[in-house]
Structure formats: C-alpha cells, structure tokens
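Please, why this fold?
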Amino acid sequence: MHLRVLRSFVEVVRAGGFSAAAQAVCATQSTVSKAVRGLEEDCGAILLERTPAGVTLTAAGEVTYRRALAMLAEKEAMDAELDDLRNVRRGTLRFGVPPVGSTLLFARQFAQYRRRYPGVRIELREKGCYALEEDVLRGELEMALALLPVSGQFEVSPLCDEPLMALLPQGHPLQGREALCLHDLDGSAFIQFEQGFALNARIRDRCLKQGVRLDETLCSGQIPFIISLVAAGLGVALVPRLMLTEPLPDGVHRALLDDDELRWRAVLAWRKGHSLSPAAAAWLELMHEMPPRISCGRDGGQALMATPDRPSKQDRPDRQVGPGTEGMACCGTAEVTGGRTTSKKVPPAGAGQCCAAGRKDGKNGRKR
C-alpha cells in the first residue's frame, strides 16, 4: 500500500468524485480510479459507493479514510522534521572539548552558533583529547578537538598551530632567556598535565627521541594551578602559548620552546567515512567563518582557519605547517592514513568567505 494511493483515495472522498480528485493529484481520472480499485483489493472490501451524484464512503471506507488521513499526516510531519534537520532548525550537536583552552577556541563560536541555530541542542563533553577520541570512535560524540598526529580512523580539519611556552620559576638558571630548546630543560622537575591529556604523550615522545629526561613531579588539569605550582618553585611546565591569556604572576618567567616538532597542533576530528549530521556540518562551517582569535606574534602561533578580513599565515605560498599538516588548506579537511595526512576540500561557508589554500613549496618552504 503506497502513500500516493492513499492520497488519491483521500482526494476522491474530499472532492466527491474522480474527476476533481484527478486534478488535485495531477493524474488522469483513469489512473485515480485504478488506484482506488487497487486499494479496495488490498483492503478486501468496497470503500466507496459510486452513484451518478458522486461517491460516498462505506463502513470500511470510513475506517480506511480515517486511517489514511492519520498516515498522511505522519508523513507530512516526518517530512517537516527532516526538513528542519537539513536546514539546521533542529538536531543535536555532540562535541568534545578539552578542559583547557576551550574558552579562547570555542566560546565566541558557540554563542554565534546558538544565535544562528536556536533549535539545535548542544551537548558538550569535557575530557582530555585521548578520551575524547575514544568517545568519537564509539559514536558517543560526533566531533571533538584532537591534537596531531591522530590515527587513520579520523578525518580532521585544522584549527590552530601553536608553539609551547616554557614556564620557569624565579631563580631558574634559564631565567631571562627568550627562547630555549628541550635539551635546556634536561633533568628539570616537570609539572605536567593530568592523565588523559594528549600533550603529555607528545612531550614524552619528543623527550625520548631527544634523549631528554624530565622529572615528572606533579600534574594538574588547570592552567592557573600549574602556573601557581611553577610560581611556588616546584618545577617547570610546558604550556601552549594561546592558553597564557593573562599576565603571569611575579616569580614566573616564560620562554619560547624553539622546537618545530613539538607544537600544539589542534584539529577538529570525526570518524573517517562518517557523514556529518547537518548540525555538525554547520558547526564545522561556522568554525571556518570564525577562526580562533590568536595573535601571530614573534612566538609563531597561527590560526589555520581564516576569514576574508584576516587571512591566516598559512595562505603564504612559501609556508608549511609542520609534520602532519603539509598542504592543508584553511578551508579543507585532512584525511590521515598510515601516519600521513592528505588534504581534502570542504565547501566554504559562502562565496568569498574562505582564503585560498596555501601550497607546499618544497624549495622555498620554511618548515614550522
């Protein structure tokens, strides 16, 4: 039993005849008559009494007519809900954010998203990046912030590329240095992020490759507390530059960690091969329209998403974005396969609203 057959039957009843019903459903009279006869065969009963004056419902026809109206109403309601989803008038955005850095990265964007899509429910989950990745793979979250490199199970869209800053206590031998390398911190007492933070593993892996030993003494998931521990002289810390938004207290000194291989490269990640819901696709588009506000000073930080009035440094043809992000466009996604990241285009938020993709120039490119 097809809905278009029920529609023809309902229109015959409403119009009181086959001719007017045929016009209503844009079909021939014979087609409508055949559809009603087929419906009567399916129901095993006569539904209409046909008279020269028109048609009237039989008892079986009354039941069928009432049920047909309900079924057609449900179909219209379903179509309306699907249309709302397609046009982001309803739905749910399930997004994972880390405990640190989210204010700068997402606060403005969530406010704009709420204004633009008031009918969409936003469900946020706050965890370390490793835990968020697991939630995405399990389907509990649709998208989350992650740090490069990620496994080949994800597709990603670049967000920002930030250097790390070394926080040093008063009296530290390196106090006064503007920049230092990882070897300079060899043997230092080290205050790390708590378990579940992907940055911990990045730092440990880099130390292992460089033969650097850090004495991990304390851990915390809160930047202000980490800074306080440094101020108390309990060790040094490595923190992404964008998270140092407030003036440091007396007794804490900062120096740029000059290491192209150890940076805070943040991306938006979702399951490879998974079609984003309209709500998530709209969020991704908004993030390209409103990239994080990161000042690109001498420390070398940059936002990899760009806007027309403030293009990112990645637009420069002689610029590379470091391991795992080569050739990624500001308004593209990166597909990670076998440890290598390749770029994929994503439709821009609107004509002229995205910057051009930066190209990789192996001869003149400056490695970040």
Remarks:
- The longest helix spans residues 59-86.
- Residues 134 and 322 are 25 Å apart (CA to CA).
- The two ends are 64 Å apart (CA to CA).
- Confidence is low (pLDDT under 50) at residues 296-301, 306-368.
